Amino acid sequence: MGLAELLADDIGPGERELLPRGWSILGRVVIVKIDPGIEHLKGEIGEALLDIYPRCITVLLDRGIEGQFREPDREVIAGSAETETVHREDGVVFKLDPMRTMFSPGNLKERMRMGRLGGGETVVDMFAGIGYFTLPMAVHSRPRKIVAIEINPVAYGYLVENVRLNHVEDIVQPILGDCAVATPKGVADRVVMGYVGTTDRYLDAGMAALVPGGLLHYHQTVPERIYPQMLKSDLAEAAKRAGRKVRIERCARVKKYSPGMLHAVLDARVE
Ligand SMILES: C[S@@+](CC[C@H](N)C(=O)[O-])C[C@H]1O[C@@H](n2cnc3c(N)ncnc32)[C@H](O)[C@@H]1O
What we know:
Structural class: alpha/beta
Number of domains: 2
CATH superfamily of the largest domain: Vaccinia Virus protein VP39
Largest sheet: 7 strands, mixed
CATH architecture of the largest domain: 3-Layer(aba) Sandwich
Number of helices: 8
CATH topology of the largest domain: Rossmann fold
Shape: globular
Number of strands: 13
Bound molecules: S-adenosylmethionine
Distance between the termini: 57 Å
């Protein structure tokens, strides 16, 4: 049975159209956005989702992600108050607490792409989070080394635990700190900048980390009407400041971010 059928006795006229049509599942936790017009039904919606997914133990209402640390604004609306869970994806184990750390289902293809790159290389992941890109790369491609930097102590704690759970301690070196200062210089064959909004402020550090001929993955949010020019000019300006040459190898949309805005990634070779 679907949500509308399960809630048939609870919803009033006009409320059916406002019911959520999608949600995500991380491990045993369901995460759902609810239209403010039917927030009074959040308990009923949560219970109905638990009926649909009997394996799941908790339902969280999602109001978005906030600030530099990417902290979710969420609330338990049904099930257990215990929200820590283990999410398995593409052969990788991610332990996380969706009440305290983000995990974007929309970035799945990009996580899988990262899992096919980096074999034998030295990699710097400047915004490592709980290991979104570091872990698929370490598990599937086995780089020589990944320096994984994360500023949020909660996400860093899960990063350290996930490195252990995926048995990649010999590859990943987690660092708790600000990548603007903690990024090593002149060591990396590949740099991952998996953060959006103000990523351009970190381009100098990202570029300085690369050996000549290394590859930069520059993520950014960009208004659709100036995609991909904005990303290319950010790169060109950073290259000019660093006195280095860049060659764009690929530019792709990761996902729709908000109305009129894209999350995109640009891959550039830096000489
Ligand atoms: C949450 S991840 C991005 C999500 C990821 N791309 C995915 O696949 O879901 C971004 C991380 O960068 C971290 N961060 C933000 N500013 C930072 C900085 N200056 N240095 C290191 N980490 C930083 C945030 O705390 C956050 O955990």
